Amino acid sequence: VPAGTLALLLGTLLWAPWRALHGAPHGAPLAELSGDQDFQLFLHKNLEFTRKIKGDVAALQRVVCDTFQLCKEEELLLVRQDLGITQVPLEKCHSHTFQVEACFSQIRNGLRTYHGSLAVVLGLLPGHAGMVETVQLDAANLSSNIQQQMEDLGLSTVTFPTESQGLLPAFSSDFQHQVGGFFILANFQRFLETAYRVLRHLACL
């Protein structure tokens, strides 16, 4: 089996929701995009960029774990419910009706939301302000890269109801602030994992 085919098969098997991608009614543009050299260059460059941001977020998670002994999500779920911290949606990126426009729009919007939410972490870790600001800058740049690529490809931006996205929770105690920062980082890491899988899958088509 050719290496490229094997990689595609593995990617498909590792992430079940993508199995329906090729048969999805809105999947036609992917065949055209997959042969676009500029699009492939964008995918590979931003795969590495996303991997870099994931590593930096993981480093911040370790700081929160070491500093506040907040390391396990299952021990803090009740506090998270009280704070109302939720994951930024990316359902358009792994549904059976996958569309490049909708998925990229959600990734771009989510990066902007987390850029703002990281202010909670910045207030929590003043001694690591440089690390947090680097992640904020990188999130903003990745969002801009996606926006620019959508414009270059002539893809329309899809808008979604904002609901409460981007609104920072009010913390009534230092502990709530710490837990809030913990979950913002945990959610951002999961968001980046999904975005990474999307870019990697498109690069394999």
From TrEMBL:
- Biological process (GO) annotations? immune response; positive regulation of myeloid cell differentiation
UniProt family annotation: Belongs to the IL-6 superfamily.
> What PROSITE patterns does this protein's entry cite?
INTERLEUKIN_6 (PS00254)
Spell out the subcellular localization from the entry. Secreted
Q: Organism, per UniProt?
A: Anhinga rufa
* PANTHER family the UniProt entry points to: GRANULOCYTE COLONY-STIMULATING FACTOR
Which coarse location class applies to the principal site listed for this UniProt protein? secreted
Domain of life assignment: Eukaryota
Enumerate the UniProt keywords alphabetically. Answer: Disulfide bond, Glycoprotein, Growth factor, Secreted, Signal
The residue range of the signal peptide is 1-23
Pfam families given in the database record: GCSF
Protein name (Swiss-Prot/TrEMBL)? MGF factor
> Which Gene3D superfamilies does the record cross-reference, listed alphabetically?
1.20.1250.10
An annotated GO cellular component:
extracellular region
**An MF annotation (GO) of this entry:** granulocyte colony-stimulating factor receptor binding
